Amino acid sequence: MKILNRYIAILALIAGLSGCDDQLDVVNPNTQTTDAFGNSESELNEALIACYSLSRLEGTNARVGYVMDALRGDEIWNSSQQWYLAADNLNALSDYFMLEWPWRDNFCVVNRTNFILSKVETALKEGSDSYKQIKGQALFLRAQAYYNLAIYYQVCPIELDYDAYSDLNNLYSPCATQDEVWDQIEADLSEAMILLPSRDKGGQWAQGRATCGSAAGYMVRALMFRHKFDKAYIVLKDIMDGKYGKYRLMDDYGDNFREGTAYENNDESLWEVQFMDYGTGGTNEVWTTGNLNSDATQGHAIESNFASQDFGSWGDIAGSNWLYNLFKEEKSTDGFLDPRLYWTLVTYEEEYDAVTGKPTAAYPSGDVRSNTVYQTKLEKDSWMYKIRSNTAQGGISIAKFTNARNNIYKSFGTGLKCGVNIRLMRYSDVLLRAAECANELGYIKTAVGYINQVRDRVKLPLLKAEDFPNSDALFEQIANVERPKEFGCEYGRGADLIRWGFFYDAGRLQQMTEHAYYVLAPQMTIPDPENPGKTKSVSYVETKELTSANATGSSFSSYSKGHEYFPIWQTHLNNNVKLGSGNSANTSTDNSTAFFQKGYKVRPVVK
């Protein structure tokens, strides 16, 4: 009997252990794999949110990625003379630490969109609304990531097959040619333009999401980078005709730079990056893909770069004297300064003291301009009435994508806190690109008409076609008057200078050098408030027109051939030997020969 009982006990134990094995064999939902995830509409939408989130990282649009491209423009300079100096001087070496971030974060977008595209064909019914919306967004976001990589780094690997490079043996790829990268961008955007709904048809769904209008806008940019002006003009006319949704210029230029739902994602916006408004969101600053969490601040640090150090910024970036004086050259028909100056640069202007708040031609809902910055009234008799970008180096402070003019707070802490959405493409860009394409195709009168729509918004005198004897003269007006005043201190000027070939022409390189003149740390003597009867020396803001005789220097004076692009980071080259020697910046190779061999031309400087 005892032996029988022992057998029964052993069998019971075996059965119990087997049962435990069955109960433990479950999938932990918190450790899902790529095989198990992404097989339904809801999961693919979650993956899309993860893609959009990457647009708000340091290497994309939250700070470094955005600022590095802006620094290649001739209308801003590195007033802190620190972090961004190599990017601003256009001579960065491959060990420059910030080169890693735009590459890293844009390829993270590529990876996540590739995952979605690897799943959508089997997870959703082809042709359904959900299929078209999810696939179209993934294609657009991938194209935008490759667009950023192309304008930053010239060349990069093209990774499209998620399953292929998920195998570590296939992870590393060589760089594609520049034209192959642009071909892929055009292919993705072409499909996205068909799949995505317009902002009108998308309704609430389209608020903050990519639409066919977003894809069409970036298609124009891709085509124009390779001088395909005839094809770009067709897309531009379709946008203006409403094929991809209804867009218009906002009556008030400032509505493109205010914070809040009343202004963001407005009728002028083809594509903008969403940031949480001031006072909302979490508290944890999320700079990279490695520490994403639910308590992220979801703000950006552009304000920390662009705004005045007197109010808490890092004081990294300042506007050029050329841009400031360009605004001062002509006034609106109501006798006031061009209102775009107010929203672009922070300077004291006497006329702002006389503003009554009543409607004007440029501000039909009431002129909001004043000499108040971050709730501080600027007084002309104060030495600091012109707000310094950097307290040590001086420089004209930038207003765009900051709350300097919105007066939401008195000062701010640096970091990912500003909630002003970054508008990456506006309808005014459509109009001025249409003008450029029309001019390239010989339609000067038509081109002037597009320009005048943009000028009329701010009540500047309308241009006359007969004032431009040829396309060279009108191009000069577009490139060095209309575009810098409309888009000054915004993302994109650097890419424009490359596609126009300005780095490959001695006259244009000299012109960019003159535009970028700056004065470093100008000093003035003031009474010392802490020591009555004594004085002290302080830096101030110089706004006069600069020449080689009165400027400290120009960031374009240090340009090294090939460095209109940024080098590929040396660690990436070391980790992936298939990248070879990198790009033209890594090897300091002159790109002018390749530019002209493609049949591209550089329009001569017209005074």
Helix content: 40-55%
What is the strand tally?
A: 13
Strand content: 5-15%
List the uncertain runs. 7-21
Which of globular, elongated, flat, extended, rod-shaped describes the shape?
A: globular
Q: Determine the N-to-C terminus distance.
A: 113 Å
| Separate helix tally | 24
Structural class: mainly alpha
What is the mean pLDDT?
Answer: 92
Strand order of the largest sheet: 4-8-7
Task: Describe the SSE topology.
Blueprint: H1 2-24, H2 41-53, H3 58-62, H4 64-71, E1 76-78, H5 85-88, H6 100-123, H7 129-153, H8 162-165, H9 178-195, H10 199-202, H11 212-225, H12 229-240, E2 269-273, H13 302-306, E3 317-319, H14 321-328, H15 339-344, E4 345-346, H16 350-353, E5 372-373, E6 376-377, E7 388-390, E8 394-398, E9 422-426, H17 427-440, H18 444-457, H19 471-487, H20 493-499, H21 506-515, E10 517-518, E11 523-527, E12 535-539, E13 553-554, H22 570-575, H23 584-587, H24 592-597
Antiparallel strand pairs: 1-3, 2-9, 4-8, 5-6, 7-8, 10-13, 11-12
Helix pairs in contact: 2-6, 2-7, 6-7, 7-9, 7-11, 9-11, 11-12, 12-17, 17-18, 17-19, 18-19
